[in-house]
Amino acid sequence: MVGWRVVGVVCALVVLGAGMSSAGAQPPREEAAGAEPPGVYVSVGESSAAGPFIPDQLDPLGCFRSDRNYAHLTAEALGLTLRDPACSGAKIANMYVAQPLPFGAPNIPQMGAVTADATIVSVDFGINDYADDGWTATALAPKLAALLDDIHARAPRAEVFVMGKIERVRAGGCFPAVPLLPTQADQIFAGVEAVNAVLAAQAAAHDATFVDVYPASIGHDACAPEDSRWAEGVFPNSPAQPLHANAVGHQQEAEMLIDAIRRNT
Asked: Is residue 30 part of a domain?
């Protein structure tokens, strides 16, 4: 079965050619001068937050975390101090327990970065929990609800933003350009929709802002032409984990998060 797990072997090949150069999308720039004092921005989440294989990759290398992911672009644009413990493969449980990595020391529990001085926290979990729970959202809602409540308790001054998921592959797919059978593409498509529905509902119920990146991403999935693609296919044409956002996708997500921060802080 091809789902999020199917790309594991491909990822091992991609990392060899991903490169560690500083190429990549330039961050959106803050134009308003000195409107707010610098704040502390904490980005927690899974691979969709980390930006695997997008140059440059940061320590610990087993997290496959980019210095050009949407969190870094947002912090640079708004002049925020960033803490970014997001890690590929993370689940909500890894907010509280260390995450073993394919090599090197484990990633420390991500909740350690969420402290009382935080002014902005972005939360980007869901896909790994959804897949590991048997491709069902049943267990995701209560886990996310508890996480959001805990973040508010630990960082009472922070505005919390729940990041949605972009379209990774359209319904039916586009075989053979992206070598997934229609049923496999439909499973991934439906999974993203299901996770987004839970994220939106729990954000609304727990005093957080849902950053709905999905509508703008429609038509920019892995099936789109290379020059308009926000997500890469099974065999990426630009540095990114298969079926994940590329540098352009992260820049687009940064712009939507920046807009949400400006409107809600």
From this structure: no
Residue 23: inside a domain, yes or no? no
Q: Determine, yes or no, domain membership for 178.
A: yes
Give Cβ neighbours of residue 69 (< 8 Å, ≥ 6 apart).
43, 49, 50, 51, 54, 84, 86, 250
**pLDDT tens digit sequence for 50-102:** 999 999 999 999 999 999 999 999 999 999 999 999 999 999 999 999 999 99
CATH number, residue 60: 3.40.50.1110
**Residue 31 or residue 212, greater confidence:** 212
| CB 216 within 8 Å of CB 252 | yes
Cα atoms found within 13 Å of the Cα of residue 36, Cβ hemisphere only: 14
Q: Which residue has the tokens 């394919």?
A: 102
The identity of residue 145, as a single letter, is A
Q: CA quadruple 91, 97, 98, 101: dihedral positive or negative?
A: negative
